[in-house]
């Protein structure tokens, strides 16, 4: 999977890798919206999820580094139109 992701443009690879990094359950409530200049923006279902996921950002950054190398430097969680 890592080889397939690395074959994509970085912006697309990071967004595609989000469900692999965060896991299926989290991916149903948090969607990778965009990636630019080392920052991934993730839309979340509600403020509670926003706070909770922010506590795991170092874990997610390590997951991205393992899959794609050190391309993601920051994850920003924002309230979005994600259905529960």
Written description of the protein model:
The chain is of the alpha+beta class and 84 residues long. It has one domain (2-79): DnaA, N-terminal domain (GMP Synthetase, Chain A, domain 3, 2-Layer Sandwich). Helices cover 50% and strands 23% of the residues. The protein has helices at residues 2-6, 10-22, 24-27, 47-54, 57-68; strands at 30-36, 39-44, 74-79. It has a three-stranded mixed sheet. Helix 2 crosses helix 5 (57-68). It is globular, with a radius of gyration of 12 Å.
Task: Kindly state the percentage of residues in helix.
Answer: 40-55%
Individual helix count:
5
Q: What Rg do the Cα atoms give?
A: 12 Å
- The CATH C-level name is Alpha Beta
Short note summarizing the structure:
The protein has 84 residues and is α+β, with helices and mostly antiparallel strands.
Task: Describe the secondary structure blueprint for this structure.
Blueprint: H1 2-6, H2 10-22, H3 24-27, E1 30-36, E2 39-44, H4 47-54, H5 57-68, E3 74-79
Parallel strand pairs: 2-3
Antiparallel strand pairs: 1-2
Helix pairs in contact: 2-5
Features:
84 residues, alpha+beta, 3-stranded mixed beta sheet, globular
